[in-house]
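RESIDUES AND SHAPES:
===
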Amino acid sequence: MKKVEAIIKPFKLDEVKDALAEVGVQGMTVTEVKGFGRTGGKKEVYRGSAYVVDFVPKVKLEIVIPDALVHQVLDAIEKSAKTGRIGDGKIFVSSVDEAVRIRTGERGDEAI
C-alpha cells in the first residue's frame, strides 16, 4: 500500500476529487494548510505598506491506496490540479506498512 499526500491550490479541490473518483479512489482526508515553497510567499500591499505573506493557503489531500493504483492516482492529481502557474503544489508518495479498519478489524488492502 502507498500513502499519497498532495498539496494543491484550494480552488482545485473539487476538480481533483472528481478525477480521483473516476480512477477508483473511495476515500481521502482533506486538511486546510498553509505553507510556502521556493517563492517564499507573496508580496501584498495594505494601506500603502508592502509586506510579505509568508504562508499561502493550500489544501492537503491524504490518500491510502493499493500499489496498483499509484500511477493512475498520480496522473489524475497532476492533470486536474495543474494551472501552469507557480504554487500548483507537490505530490509525495510513501509506503504504508499496515492499515486496519477499526469497525471490522479488516487489515491491509481490505481495510482501505
